[in-house]
Write a structure and sequence with these properties.
Layout lengths: L3 E4 L2 E3 L5 E7 L5 E7 L6 E7 L4 E3 L7 E6 L4 E6 L8 E9 L2 E4 L3 E5 L2
Parallel strand pairs: 2-11
Antiparallel strand pairs: 1-3, 3-8, 4-5, 4-9, 5-6, 7-8, 9-10, 9-11
């Protein structure tokens, strides 16, 4: 079973940056990040396939960048120009033929 370990959440001021990292126990087809704000559905933030195909939510395009290191089984989400509406619990996600896997979630709070 795929295991996911997240790091990098925290409190940041508007306009600031955070870097989220997720390490998997093995390489998988797709890795990425979802987020869920209070009272809202969980939504895709960004994801990348093993082959390098990436997609982003419209709300984060131009501000967030996702990258993968397949050799290290990791995915990194660099979040720049953060806005208060980015505040949410962020969950690492991995998908492969064995199923869908989730990290425990890390809180990102953007506030002055």
């Amino acid at each position: 079973q795929v295991q996911l370990v997240e790091s990098g959440g925290g409190l940041v001021q508007p306009g600031g940056s955070l870097r989220l990292s997720c390490a998997a126990s093995e390489v998988v087809f797709s890795m990425g990040w979802y987020r869920q704000a209070p009272g809202k559905q969980r939504e895709l933030v960004a994801a990348a396939t093993r082959g390098g195909i990436k997609n982003y939510a419209d709300s984060v395009k131009g501000r967030f960048t996702i990258s993968r290191d397949n050799a290290l089984y990791t995915v990194v989400l660099q979040m720049n120009s953060l806005k208060p509406e980015d505040t949410a619990v962020y969950y690492c996600n991995a998908d492969d033929r064995s199923g869908r896997y989730w990290g425990q979630g890390t809180q990102v709070t953007v506030s002055s």
